[in-house]
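Quick one, T. Sequence first:
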Amino acid sequence: ARPVLSHSTRNGLPDHTDPEDNEIVCFLKVQLAEAINLQDKNLMAQLQETMRCVGRFDNRTCRKLLASIAEDYRKRAPYFTYLTRCRQGLQTTQAHLERLLQRVLRDKEVANHYFTTVCVRLLLESKESKIREFIQDFQKLTAADDKTAQVEDFLQFLYGVMAQDVIWQNASEEQLQDAQLVIERSVMNRIFKLAFYPNQDGDILRDQLLHDHIQRLSKVVTANHKALQIPEVYLREAPWPSAQAEICTISAYKTPRDKLQCVLRMCSTIMNLLSLANEDSVPGADDFVPVLVFVLIKANPPCLLSTVQYISSFYANSLTGEESYWWMQFTAAVEFIKTIDERK
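Structure tokens:
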């Protein structure tokens, strides 16, 4: 009886009890009903056996049993306190070890990436003549489709060379994907200015004009500007500095894939902030796009038009469903910004 009574929780006694039952039996019947409701077979068996034993006790014996349990609890109180302190200490140690494990895993990830980068660098150095030939051919092209096709073909050529290299024979699929990403970054870095500014000074001037336009807008456009129509429930989070910080780093990336990921992180940050501001509903496109426009105006990332053209030219065919959706929202926001008149 002691283990069952010690582990039970008193939620109350029934309003109508059998006068022949003592108080403990009434209490156990409540517990049995709960166990039956939860279909806890083990507890049901324990309670039924306990009821059989306790049912033979008179009220005086029941009071003795309850007093004995209470005294046992009192004597064990210091031990319970000790166990609580030990558990708290173990939980603190566990949290510390989990944090250390996260740091070790992060260090391992960085080391693996560095090792992959070194191996890829050795591979590319052996193909330096092919890379220079590719750059020369790329400079001669004028059509965007031809440039995209040549970049894709050359990357596939390098991927094939890597697959045949003895260093990469036993590499895992994850390592191969990391290596392909390093190859892509290295190649795109070599042709970045040619690919990012295909019209050279014309593209630079176009970007500067939009940058100046957005800078003027930033001085007059507020979160409650009539052209944006941001729902009032989201205005408490304005001006969304964390989202601005994400898009401001876009110039640090050279590949269209990395630039797109920067855009996606900004969009994800905005959605998270909107969800926090209004937990009762899921933000939709009508809620998201006005905030995105405002964030772009306040952040005013450089070379915005060239960035859109660069990603559209060299990564459009690789967009997945979710990436395509957020990219469409981003380009729509840029187009809308171009139409806003700062004088109004």
